[in-house]
Amino acid sequence: GKFTLKLERTKAFREINAKYHFAPIPTCPNAVPPSDEYFDCFMRYFTTVEYHLCGTAKMGPQSDPTAVVDPELRVYGISGLRVADASIMPVITNGNTNAPTIMIGEKASDLIKSSWRN
């Protein structure tokens, strides 16, 4: 946030009278821009995960009626089917889902190899 404020001082931005828009943040009404508190709250409130969808095949205990897969990524009620992607995350992460999704795939690989050994 503070870095982008420096852009206002560039020739290109001054020529078009570009100004930083300090959006009000409902969860931090007392955070005054451009304070660290404001930018911290801004990042927490406005962070999204566009195009990194998850949570559509929730992992959870069988007692959870909204859970689709068990902790070993097996789909409840369907033999031989596992889900190994971001859809098993019951709650979306605050950051990019790439690393957690890779970890899910690696864990799935270990689970599948282990089940075939047994």
UniProtKB/TrEMBL annotation:
Domain Glucose-methanol-choline oxidoreductase C-terminal: 16-105
UniProt GO molecular function: flavin adenine dinucleotide binding; oxidoreductase activity, acting on CH-OH group of donors
Pfam families per UniProt: GMC_oxred_C
Record-linked InterPro entries: FAD/NAD-bd_sf (IPR036188), GMC_OxRdtase (IPR012132), GMC_OxRtase_C (IPR007867)
Similarity-based family: Belongs to the GMC oxidoreductase family.
Protein name (Swiss-Prot/TrEMBL): Glucose-methanol-choline oxidoreductase C-terminal domain-containing protein
Lineage: Eukaryota, Metazoa, Ecdysozoa, Arthropoda, Crustacea
